[in-house]
Specification:
Blueprint lengths: L3 E4 L2 E13 L2 E7 L9 E3 L6 H13 L3 E16 L2 E14 L11 E3 L2 E10 L12 H5 L8 E9 L1
Parallel strand pairs: 2-6, 5-9
Antiparallel strand pairs: 1-2, 2-3, 2-4, 3-8, 5-6, 7-8
Length: 158
């Protein structure tokens, strides 16, 4: 069971995300119907630790195994999406593929879950041109923190 709670017009969400960087490109994804992008990941399951969760999510979405390198950001993310207020706790982990044959594609591609999510490797230097949430990702990936950072991000609409 996902650690997500729905309360009338609000949602509490506990999410993990994978920061996967290869040759100065980062992997991002979006739901096909959306205009905005995010880092791959998903909801933590009840009684599952966050590192296990990010490894599981990448395996489910891309069919590859990854190694968790380190926690980069712990976020409290408050935003509006689809006419609902979200309060999201997000943990962003730097990960590395264990299978060296996992290459990046220059064009968009679908993952293991079919055509609901589309993925793309994007040069980190081009992120400021992309509608990517949370917004701090667009500038923070060019210089990853040495130690985990706690960020509070709020009051934006998707």
């Amino acid at each position: 069971m996902d650690t997500t709670f729905y309360i009338e017009k609000a949602v509490f969400n506990y999410r993990v995300a994978a920061v996967m960087i290869v040759d100065n490109h980062v992997l991002i994804h979006k739901q096909v119907k959306d205009e905005h992008w995010a880092l791959p990941g998903g909801r933590v399951e009840l009684l599952e630790d966050s590192q296990t969760s990010v490894v599981r999510e990448v395996k489910e979405e891309l069919g590859i195994d990854v190694k968790v390198e380190k926690l980069l950001w712990f976020t409290e993310n408050i935003f509006d999406y689809n006419n609902k207020n979200y309060h999201e706790i997000g943990l962003y982990f730097q990960v590395s593929p264990l299978n060296i044959s996992f290459n990046f594609h220059k064009e968009e591609f679908y993952g293991e879950e079919g055509e609901q999510l589309v993925y793309q490797w994007v040069p980190i230097s081009s992120l400021e041109k992309i509608k990517l949430y949370p917004e701090f990702i667009r500038t923070s990936l060019s210089e990853l923190p040495e130690a985990p950072q706690h960020l509070i991000v709020h009051n934006y609409s998707i």
